[in-house]
Amino acid sequence: MSDPTSAAGTSPGTAQERVDALTTRPSIFVRLNGTNEGPREIAWSDFRKRYAPIIAGFARNLGARPQEIDDVIQDVLMGFFAKSPTFVYDPAKGRFRGYLKVCTYRALRKRSSVAALKFKAMPLDQVDPDSLEFDQAWNDVWEQEQLRRALDETREHYRHANTFRAFEQYVILGKPADQVAELLGMHVNSVYRAKEQITEVLRQKMQARQNEEG
After folding, report:
1. When you count CB atoms within 10 A of the terminal residue's CB, does the N or C end of the chain come out lower?
2. What is the DSSP string of 26-91?
């Protein structure tokens, strides 16, 4: 059987080189601080794409209605946009995800139906946003969204090869390796290599995001 993982269309270079090409760029906070409106608007669009789904997912888990979710996203993002020209991300003062969590919590509490929002059956206005349980719930949504974006980017990067398809069928969908190999016309060892390769790419992409965003 042919082995599409080595066929034309698969990008050359190591997994690390591919990850670097996809994720290495100036910090989004540096770009938001810029004075040039064009690049700053692009950075703001990028910022919204990154963080709006996290805010939405967390609000949805607390029972917020769709319109409330839209309002909370608007409150959080516009509040940060107003501060962004002077915002300096300092990891020594805490992770950005913690800062965004507090902003989201405050925005949720401002909603008129806040009494209906619950966390572990407790009204939101009685919840300590710094509690370990609340922090873990926020981090779970954060990590899920980061992984989703990493998967989407990696899928797009390997769109001309079977490498990601093999990983998806074998790891995500849980199909047997020999079945995946037959389905994609590749050697079973190539399925195992695809798993190792994509897993490493995802690990490095997630680490790169953590290093950039906190």
Report:
1. N
2. --HHHHHT-S-HHHHHHHHHHHHHHHHHHHHHHHHHTT--HHHHHHHHHHHHHHHHHHGGG----G
